[in-house]
């Protein structure tokens, strides 16, 4: 087990306990994961921590890159999804009071993790803490989200109206610490008690919507998601590649999430509106949306990883 620590090393046979267990899932991540790992020592400051990286069957040299590093424990796995990889990494980590979920295409600012941990410890009921994230060019990355509703199915974030916009793009919303419905899962510090109470991420999503589901289930169980601008990070986005298939997974999982939380009647409306939205995007030139429309209307064309091709309304 690879552990970075600020104090004396544990004696032989003594159980390793750290402040934070950092977990990363890689898939063809050679362009970015080294920068993430390089940023961690300064990001953790004086905290003790471990780093476990689960590689989901990369074919681009990521396993060789990771094998050459001494600052992380690497677990090789079949690609059974992002959520499964995170859960596997947590199980492979030493005992810790918190779990830091990291995308391989992120980097953390110095002392970012102590700032996140301070919020988690200070706010009763906080189960998840998200930092202020910037894009590669230094601009603000709008990572905060409202919960899914019928009004927000169209993704009309440009309106900046809460009734229509799931993504929060109002700059002022990123200036102060506050609770949110959920935040993009590229960098999240999670109370281990919260993680265990929810039995980790829901692996049935395979890719996309797992962090939405996790935060909303946490809220149902009394755990809040809190945003803080005091901790900083950078996220490239799309580090493992984006395609028509991943876009289709994203849209299907949004329908599945909404159905699981609201029931079939409202889910049929959400499903129909998603078809309309994706058809419009396709007509306007977003070619990936044609693949999504076909998969929505023909279950046999849906990505098999989701196991959502047995019924017309995906579940």
UniProtKB/TrEMBL annotation:
Keywords recorded for this protein, A-Z: Transferase
InterPro entries referenced in this protein's UniProt entry, alphabetically: Glyco_trans_2-like, Nucleotide-diphossugar_trans
Keyword NADP belongs to the record: no
CDD domains from the UniProt entry: GT_2_like_c
Gene Ontology terms, MF aspect: transferase activity
UniProt xrefs under Gene3D superfamilies: Spore Coat Polysaccharide Biosynthesis Protein SpsA, Chain A
Full protein name: Glycosyltransferase family 2 protein
Organism encoding this protein: Cryobacterium adonitolivorans
């Amino acid at each position: 087990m690879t552990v970075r620590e600020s104090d004396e090393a544990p004696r032989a046979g003594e159980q390793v306990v750290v402040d934070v267990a950092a977990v990363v899932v890689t898939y063809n991540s050679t362009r970015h994961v080294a920068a993430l790992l390089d940023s961690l020592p300064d990001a953790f400051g004086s905290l003790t921590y471990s780093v476990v990286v689960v590689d989901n069957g990369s074919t681009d040299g990521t396993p060789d890159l990771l094998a050459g590093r001494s600052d992380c424990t690497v677990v090789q796995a079949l690609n059974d999804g992002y959520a499964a990889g995170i859960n596997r990494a947590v199980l492979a980590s030493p005992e810790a009071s918190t779990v830091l979920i990291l995308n391989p295409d992120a980097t953390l600012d110095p002392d970012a993790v102590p700032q996140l941990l301070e919020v988690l410890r200070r706010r009763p009921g906080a189960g998840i803490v998200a930092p202020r994230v910037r894009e590669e060019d230094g601009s603000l990355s709008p990572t905060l989200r409202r919960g899914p509703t019928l009004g927000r199915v169209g993704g009309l974030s440009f309106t900046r109206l809460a009734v229509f916009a799931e993504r929060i793009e109002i700059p002022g919303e990123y200036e102060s610490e506050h609770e949110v419905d959920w935040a993009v899962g590229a960098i999240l510090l999670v109370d281990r008690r919260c993680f265990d109470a929810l039995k980790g991420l829901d692996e049935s999503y395979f890719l996309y919507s797992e962090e939405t589901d996790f935060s909303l289930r946490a809220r149902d169980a009394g755990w809040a998601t809190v945003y803080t601008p005091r901790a900083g990070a950078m996220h490239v986005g799309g580090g493992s590649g984006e395609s028509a298939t991943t876009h289709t997974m994203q849209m299907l999982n949004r329908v599945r999430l909404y159905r699981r939380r609201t029931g079939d009647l409202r889910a049929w409306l959400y499903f129909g509106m998603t078809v309309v939205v994706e058809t419009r995007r396709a007509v306007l030139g977003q070619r990936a949306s044609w693949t999504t429309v076909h998969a929505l209307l023909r279950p046999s064309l849906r990505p098999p990883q989701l196991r959502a091709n047995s019924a017309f309304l995906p579940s």
